[in-house]
Amino acid sequence: MSLTDHPRTAPLPLRRRFLQDTGMELQRCTVCGIRGQSICNAINDKELEILAQASSRLTFPPATTLIEEGSPAIAFFNVTKGTVKLFKSLPDGRRQITGFADVGHFLGLTNARTYSFGAETVDTVQVCRFLRPQLETLLTDYPLFERRLLTEITGELAEAQEQMLLLGRKTARERIASFLLARMMPPSPHADSAVEGQMVSLPMTRVDIADYLGLTIETVSRTLSALRREKIITGTDNHGIRVLAVSRLEDLASGQDNR
Amino acid sequence: MSLTDHPRTAPLPLRRRFLQDTGMELQRCTVCGIRGQSICNAINDKELEILAQASSRLTFPPATTLIEEGSPAIAFFNVTKGTVKLFKSLPDGRRQITGFADVGHFLGLTNARTYSFGAETVDTVQVCRFLRPQLETLLTDYPLFERRLLTEITGELAEAQEQMLLLGRKTARERIASFLLARMMPPSPHADSAVEGQMVSLPMTRVDIADYLGLTIETVSRTLSALRREKIITGTDNHGIRVLAVSRLEDLASGQDNR
DNA sequence: GGTCATTGTTGATATAAATCAACGACAAGT
DNA sequence: ACTTGTCGTTGATTTATATCAACAATGACC
Fold first, then answer.
1. What pLDDT is stored for residue A6 in this prediction?
2. pLDDT, tens digit, for every residue of B175-232?
């Protein structure tokens, strides 16, 4: 199956009803705050209304299924707010989260007629949805859009390879260290310099972290506690942690230093 | 870094001297037996000489380094014969093979200025090499070529996600079963029907299998022995195995049946 | 303000796979 | 034909992490 197939349109497989933003469709993309970070950036300012016509903006509450594993692949999403988790499952319920799609990332690209993975919102999520025929049109009419998509997916593949190294060869401690580093926010210029340590945002639960790192929730919890005890990280808030010793964490992540 | 960067040309990082096919360059692609299976298929018959000019065909002995981890990303390869392994390593030598590129597959695509992975031949390998500026030209001038590449890499990503599920959540037995199934040859019409069982080609060593599946060589060896003992597979040849019970193996691979 | 469900933490024990170790099969070279 | 090195197999033991179990913290809801 190739990307050039045009499957018939069908209702989106959603467990809950979603919210659809109304009005001002034609202006939406022009004012999109994250266009600079996303594939939409590849489309000319003057032609933005084409993008607006091709997409619709939707808002979903936490824990909403965006993509059901094995369901018909009819849409493609670009995340404009929040975090979406992508995963694959085994018949007995074991699950592997293959990635978190944060702001600016896309999801839903596939060659097959059905999705080989699932997707669920972690927190409140806003996306731009492109139906497949619309995506085809953009790809064909805007070479820069296609090139940008190729670049993005090449990056995804590199991340996937890094994650395979983590899952296949790293210890629990190394996995947690790598995860925290990968999710570390770049130090913002407006950062509260009175509070020390680099912020790490963890909107997902311990279950999600465990399913992403190929561990159990107990091991995740114990390892985070150990790092806290060793003053490498701080913070009692479950969804926000601060890294006190970035370089220690970097050594840990690459297996330089274990104790 | 984007695909549109043109890094300066530099000598290829090869431990050994490679063999370069000479003469008849312009005809080479026309007679390429595997074009139908590869990205080159996206280029029109009449324009094949453009492809021939953009690429050079090279032959390498087993265990040749095609790509050194971290070296400048100057080339892109299309495998026309043999098998190449792709991998990532940790400073202490732990290694994860992220994939095997068999006939028809490409390798070497990256957004960065350097490769984030290594590549080494498993057996005798023949490739078509495209230097990066040449690849750029093809991508820009032949939309079908670019589309084909996007389709291929989308498939690679799906495979990577499947492998993450394997590495993060499957048992040793499930990993071996999945691996054998994935490498099972499609039953050829000329197959020797006197010999029962589906052929599985394993050109790589036990070390490579272990590094691909996130196991040790001992576990790989023990698990294969167990499957042989249970009459699910046969064959004493280390690089060729026959699957006797495909459906048993499928159940095993998806965690349905373990004993 | 109490009940209940959800999420996370910590401790005790079990286990799958790693590690350590010995050896067999085979091919290359002398 | 013997040595040497590579590769794979099998057995004994260790260990990192899973599993099992109890409990604490939090927030939703009546």
1. 43
2. 999 999 999 977 766 655 556 778 999 999 999 999 999 999 999 999 999 999 999 9
Residue B70: CB less than 7 A from any atom in strand C: no
What number of H helices and E strands is found in chain B? 8, 12
Tabulate helix, strand, coil % of chain B (nearest 5).
40, 20, 40
CA distance A68 to A75: 12
Q: Which of residues 162-191 of B touch A (CB under 8 A)?
A: 162-165, 167-170
| CB < 8 Å from A in window 127-146 of B | 139-140, 143, 146
Q: What is the pLDDT of residue A244?
A: 93
User: What pLDDT is stored for residue B192 in this prediction?
Assistant: 57
pLDDT at B49: 81
Domains of chain B by start residue, with CATH: 19-165 (2.60.120.10), 170-253 (1.10.10.10)
Residue in A112, A157, A165 closest to B153 by CB = A157
Flag residues of chain A having pLDDT under 70. 1-27, 188-195, 258-259
Partner A contacted by B93 (CB < 8 A): no
Q: Which residue of A has its CA nearest to B212?
A: A168
> Using the CA of A63, which nucleotide's C1' is the nearest one?
C6
Could you tell me the CA-to-CA distances from A146 to A36, A158, B1, B165 in Å, in that order? Answer: 16, 19, 16, 29
A207 close to B (CB below 8 A): no
Query: Rounded to the nearest 5°, which phi and psi values hold at A14?
Result: -115, 135
Q: How confident is the model at residue B96 (pLDDT cuts 50, 70, 90)?
A: very high
Residue A3 contacts residue B154 (beta carbons within 8 Å) = yes
CB contacts, 8 Å: A107 with chain B: none
Tell me the sheet residues that pair with B45.
none
CB spacing of B140 vs A143 below 8 angstroms: yes
